[in-house]
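User: Hello! My lab partner asked me to get a predicted holo structure for this protein. The small molecule is magnesium ion, SMILES included with the sequence. Please write out the structure tokens.
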Amino acid sequence: MTPDLPRIACFDLDNTLIDRDAAFATWAEWWAQSVGLGADAVSWLLDRDEGGFRPRADLFGGAKEQFGLRASVEALEAAYDREHPLFTWAEPEVLDGLRALRTAGWRVVVVTNGGIVQQGIKLEHTGIGAVVDFGCISEAVGVRKPDPVIFKIAADRVGATLEGGWMVGDHPAYDIAGGIAAGLRTIRVGDHHPEAATADRVPTHHFQSVLSAFEVILAG
Ligand SMILES: [Mg+2]
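Assistant: Hello! Below are the structure tokens for the protein in complex with magnesium ion.
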């Protein structure tokens, strides 16, 4: 037991704290226009995005072929990593919820699978990075959800214990299974990836909005 350490509240970023899919759709419209493509290209991208889980090299390789783009796949991918995070935003109520948890004594951490560049820009651009104790990006720490080690790294980094902590996220296989493996209580947000919601990945709570998660955690 480590009763003296503060407890930790972990949050996934994409489609948990921010509406990643909405941001992607807005980026897609901007990007299509910027390269001289129309609504068909936007639909094409939205159909193949898979909530961001389709490898970007695959997505842009396909787009290059489909639309005869001149830029290399690597260049398209690098531009995407820098540009699409600028289309993300956080609702004021989400920033308030994160602040309220910290004020109440929780150590608040974002635990996100992804690249340093794009996730780092998202944290900065949305203002989320400024109101949490640590943004734990898988590429930076060398381990991904659902590996429970990533939660241990996050807890150590902010001087917290995992005991009595929470993991909040939208993905049953990464966020909920990962949180359970780390010994955390879990809250699933939304209905993304229903195919992954198996019997061994049942969260402590399931809400449609992350705002309900703040209430439950604050209530103790
Ligand atoms: Mg997510």
